[in-house]
């Protein structure tokens, strides 16, 4: 079936292999300037097979603060480039081939073409580099604070102001204002006998101890930074320790001392601590069975799901108070459906931190962001969607999250519904782009749930009435969304979103049979295999692909929840077929092993949930149940462990290895929850979070399980509501 799907975007994840800590502020990786993270070979590309910028994997140094899995975001990081060299400073910026790359959680290493072995590990707010030099009379480590961004058109980031100060042998500090944010770094370099100097425009400033720059412009920018230089014997190692802060040099130094301790060198200890933290986080999901490739993809997906958002506690550059500060929420449009529910289940404290941070952003800036980078400005991805934070807040309240001042949160939720596109929705009950009508209607429903739980029944009734405006987005004749503009998708992609009133939505489409017929057409049941875009696809080829009006195979955000629409029409067997096809054919262990942008872990989180046989319905306090990809699984949840067991399961390899294998028993025949029959194809989120045991008996043919007891909808008769 996957062969009938059509994907406009390159089938790569846009991730990087750099060193990160779970949700850490810092990431560190080899820097080539390539799209989109700064690592790799690709130039900017959003359609077809990606084009390359270089003939080889290469690097001009190692930078910090990478995004993960994003697409065409306008601004980029890659600040503070560290380059080990055996060449003159004049050659800073040239790239050398990378050999013998190695990556594991919290660690990245490669050998530059110059023969220098380069290793990097990170903590939450620190990075530690270890360079092993060949014998050379003039080896050096160069820290460049002037660069950022990508080596692509409009990809460069130019600092506004900067200050660097030498603090004595092996110690220095600096602050660079990038994209409106003051990024401070405190550096310690173990280089006995080496000279330490500032440099500007690739010229050494012998004896200088401080550089100050004001009003930097692209026209007057010249590179600047620090240099450590001396003779190296073969195999000599130099350690570079960097502490970062968004609140000044003193806090950067405090972060370095706290995470690196007093022992020198610190590389091994920092690496071991981060590795242990990763082991703890990745251990929260355990599976039995599955082929080695499936287990590898699952582990990789879980890893990618826990990289972002970045948390820089007590580091907000925009408000003075202590507390959580989250950035690289890039973007809520991608993560609210899958990743935030995953964080709520596995790391509930961090999920609460994220929501607290978003509420604070709303206080300071006047609205909940749709995306939030480590950058000042109004570029918050508002065109993608509206009112997405409301879904996560409603779920958190239903789960009993107590750290949030819910009366205060409700004030912001209500006010935010009237901002941006919300003003037109409030006045007219519909807004274009038409997908924002759906967003806002769901946002009203989620806000009504919180208001009702806080006993503001009058407000709840008004909000719920306005939440029915989703119907204005649909054409009753076609059963699809009205013609409009669509962000990265089309009318068909968006028409099968999971709404808060799927009973009425299916009725609008003409009932179960007609709704299922449209879904079958969208997912390519019985269709011919389609040709995928190649390199530089012409406009006519792309137009023909879009004209298929076909599922994009998880290539884009609107696809994530569409397979589960069948649950609401009583056909969970169809969901099982589509999800199995996606898990088997859309993900792999090699390069290009993701069907689209990973989008800060949103796509990888989809894979984790789908492999477990669950799918969270954002804002509805609900999980849909489906056939798992493993014989059994255990999730560590806030109140214990949730076990998913199967009987009748059979392994299936992924990709081409599975061509000669019969499909496994895909269909749930019956289910039990904690030993009691479960006739419904859904669970409340509380059922999962409190722990328990879900058993699914599988078979080779569809059954009646889940056909009658549908997931809840707003217009359900009161006695049927779960």
TrEMBL record:
<dbReference type="InterPro" id="IPR041371">
    <property type="entry name" value="GH92_N"/>
</dbReference>
<dbReference type="InterPro" id="IPR014718">
    <property type="entry name" value="GH-type_carb-bd"/>
</dbReference>
<feature type="domain" description="Glycosyl hydrolase family 92">
    <location>
        <begin position="251"/>
        <end position="699"/>
    </location>
</feature>
<protein>
    <submittedName>
        <fullName>Glycoside hydrolase family 92 protein</fullName>
    </submittedName>
</protein>
<dbReference type="GO" id="GO:0016787">
    <property type="term" value="F:hydrolase activity"/>
</dbReference>
<feature type="domain" description="Glycosyl hydrolase family 92 N-terminal">
    <location>
        <begin position="13"/>
        <end position="245"/>
    </location>
</feature>
<dbReference type="Pfam" id="PF07971">
    <property type="entry name" value="Glyco_hydro_92"/>
</dbReference>
<dbReference type="InterPro" id="IPR012939">
    <property type="entry name" value="Glyco_hydro_92"/>
</dbReference>
<keyword id="KW-0378">Hydrolase</keyword>
<feature type="region of interest" description="Disordered">
    <location>
        <begin position="694"/>
        <end position="722"/>
    </location>
</feature>
<dbReference type="InterPro" id="IPR008928">
    <property type="entry name" value="6-hairpin_glycosidase_sf"/>
</dbReference>
<dbReference type="Pfam" id="PF17678">
    <property type="entry name" value="Glyco_hydro_92N"/>
</dbReference>
<dbReference type="InterPro" id="IPR050883">
    <property type="entry name" value="PNGase"/>
</dbReference>
